UniProtKB/TrEMBL annotation:
<keyword id="KW-0560">Oxidoreductase</keyword>
<dbReference type="Pfam" id="PF00255">
    <property type="entry name" value="GSHPx"/>
</dbReference>
<keyword id="KW-0575">Peroxidase</keyword>
<dbReference type="GO" id="GO:0004601">
    <property type="term" value="F:peroxidase activity"/>
</dbReference>
<dbReference type="InterPro" id="IPR029759">
    <property type="entry name" value="GPX_AS"/>
</dbReference>
<dbReference type="InterPro" id="IPR013766">
    <property type="entry name" value="Thioredoxin_domain"/>
</dbReference>
<feature type="domain" description="Thioredoxin">
    <location>
        <begin position="1"/>
        <end position="159"/>
    </location>
</feature>
<dbReference type="InterPro" id="IPR000889">
    <property type="entry name" value="Glutathione_peroxidase"/>
</dbReference>
<protein>
    <recommendedName>
        <fullName>Glutathione peroxidase</fullName>
    </recommendedName>
</protein>
<comment type="similarity">
    <text>Belongs to the glutathione peroxidase family.</text>
</comment>
<dbReference type="InterPro" id="IPR036249">
    <property type="entry name" value="Thioredoxin-like_sf"/>
</dbReference>
<dbReference type="InterPro" id="IPR029760">
    <property type="entry name" value="GPX_CS"/>
</dbReference>
Length: 160
């Protein structure tokens, strides 16, 4: 099993297979619009701009599971991201990222890259998962890890 076995709906409501990202390095992030970490959207966009032409994608998945910090509907989220942070990387519909109702993708990511002390749960907004070109989940980064701190890992995977 790999990340390519999953599907998700874009913010525009279109179902997509993540197999469309085969051969690319991915950074999968659970996001929120009203979180102290929300300014990381800017850093995510900067990292995306820096590496997108070399086979890299950021995939954003809004979630309202942490203190209700993503209350908006898909249209609101898309508008917020575009207006405030110029987000052009792929964004998907709001999902649960922990618990029994978690999206299957996040159950998989959490199992493949456990957190501190082996935790299989996403603990907060802006948890990041780095996936290689073969669809393997390599690493989990905490919300406190800023996108620029992940650049070296991304560059290494891209071979430069």
């Amino acid at each position: 099993m790999s990340i390519y076995d999953f599907e998700a709906n874009t913010l525009r409501g279109q179902e997509e297979s993540l197999s469309k990202y085969k051969g690319k390095v991915l950074l999968v992030v659970n996001t929120a619009s009203k979180c102290g970490f929300t300014p990381q959207y800017k850093g995510l966009q900067e990292v995306y701009d820096k590496f997108k032409d070399r086979g890299f994608e950021v995939l954003g998945f809004p979630s309202n599971q942490f203190a209700g910090q993503e209350p908006g509907e898909s249209e609101d989220i898309a508008e917020f991201c575009e207006i405030n942070y110029g987000v052009t990387f792929p964004m998907y519909e709001k999902v649960d990222v922990k618990g029994n109702e978690a999206h299957p993708l996040f159950k998989y990511l959490s199992k493949e890259a456990p957190g501190v002390l082996g935790s299989k749960s996403v603990k907060w907004n802006f948890t990041k998962f780095l996936v290689d070109q073969e669809g393997r989940v390599l690493k989990r980064f905490s919300p406190q890890t800023t996108p620029d701190q992940i650049e070296a890992d991304i560059a290494k995977l891209l071979g430069k």
